[in-house]
């Protein structure tokens, strides 16, 4: 029976395909160089509709969600037909709505930015997010 299953999934071609190089080497680089420039919402404390923390890396939920956004972006960018749309619809908007929510992980943040400005950013401690392109 296992021979039949082996025949069903032939991954002989997978061995020869090179792994595509990452555009962003870490979740930090992805947030710093891309994501915070795409979501230019006005954020602030109090009754603000959106919250964001420049030190997003201090919030475990945010790190986990942003890591997922980065990895899904790296994967879906390789689909020239619908990859970008799928990423926005299924990943970015879902997670960013939760992260930016007034009751999300940044609920107590006092960081601000004006409409059209990139989300606030603070550099994480060195070596927290090593460049994965250098790991190979």
Essential attributes:
136 residues; 43% helix; globular; mainly alpha; single chain
Shape: globular
Biggest beta sheet summary: none
| Secondary-structure element string | HHHHH
> C-alpha Rg, in Å?
18 Å
Structural class estimated from helices and strands: mainly alpha
The number of distinct β-strands equals: 0
Q: Unreliable stretches, pLDDT < 50, 5 or more residues?
A: none
Compute the average pLDDT: 90
Span of the ends, CA to CA: 37 Å
User: How many helices does DSSP assign?
Assistant: 5
Strand % is under 5%
Helix content class:
40-55%
Description:
With 136 residues, the chain is mainly α. Helix content is 43%, strand content 0%. It is built from five helices and no strands. It has helices spanning 2-8, 12-16, 27-38, 60-76, 83-100. Helix 4 packs antiparallel against helix 5 (83-100). The protein is globular. The chain starts with a helix and ends in a 36-residue tail after the last helix.
Short description:
The chain is mainly alpha-helical and 136 residues long.
Which SSEs are present, and which pair or pack?
Blueprint: H1 2-8, H2 12-16, H3 27-38, H4 60-76, H5 83-100
Helix pairs in contact: 4-5
């Amino acid at each position: 029976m296992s021979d039949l299953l082996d025949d069903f999934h032939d991954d002989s071609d997978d061995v020869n395909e090179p792994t595509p190089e990452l555009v962003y080497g870490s979740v930090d680089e992805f947030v710093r160089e891309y994501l915070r420039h795409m979501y230019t919402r006005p954020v602030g404390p109090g009754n603000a509709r959106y919250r964001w923390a420049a030190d997003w890396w201090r919030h475990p939920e945010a790190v986990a969600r942003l890591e997922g956004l980065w990895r899904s972006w790296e994967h879906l960018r390789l689909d020239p037909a619908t990859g970008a749309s799928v990423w926005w619809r299924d990943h970015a908007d879902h997670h960013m709505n939760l992260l930016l929510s007034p009751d999300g992980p940044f609920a107590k943040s006092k960081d601000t930015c004006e409409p059209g400005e990139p989300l606030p950013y603070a550099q994480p401690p060195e070596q927290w997010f090593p460049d994965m392109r250098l790991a190979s």
